Amino acid sequence: MLFALWACAESQTETLPTVFEGTSDDGEVSWVLDFGTEPVVGPAEVLLTQTVDDVPLEVVPGIEPWMPDHGHGVSEPPVIDALGDGTWEATWTWSMAGAWEVRLDADGHEGAIDVVVR
Questions:
Q1: Suppose 101 and one of 110, 112, 115, 118 were both cysteines; which one would form an S-S bond, judging by CB atoms 3.0 to 4.6 Å apart?
Q2: Pick the CATH number of 17-117 from 2.60.40.10, 3.40.140.10, 3.30.70.360, 1.10.10.10
Q3: In the chain, what are the domain boundaries?
Q4: pTM to 2 decimals?
Q5: What sign for the dihedral angle of Cα 86, 91, 93, 97?
Q6: 3-class SS letters over the chain
């Protein structure tokens, strides 16, 4: 029992990444998600950059935060605002801690980036 408590406490001190990168399933689109801080339960403000061959992709991205182990997403769809040069600001609220996917699509290209939320 003591070991289980120690293991839980140890993982809470680990620093989680704030920037996540991925590509579409077909390798055409590159995405970078920058949370600015560790993703935690509650409001998220994310900068999303999307490019094709290092050229900004100005198509409005589809964003769906999804928790695959539980089969659900967030309660309200993300709000997405264009900042220019293929950069977008997206806001949503993480409803619970755990393993999430941020599912993305742009101009017919789809992919997902794994994110751990505390």
A1: 112
A2: 2.60.40.10
A3: 17-117
A4: 0.84
A5: positive
A6: CHHHHHHHHHHHHCCCCCEEEEECCCCCCEEEEECCCCCCCEEEEEEEEEEECCEECCCCCEEEEEECCCCEECCCCCEEEEEECCEEEEEEEECCCEEEEEEEEECCEEEEEEEEEC
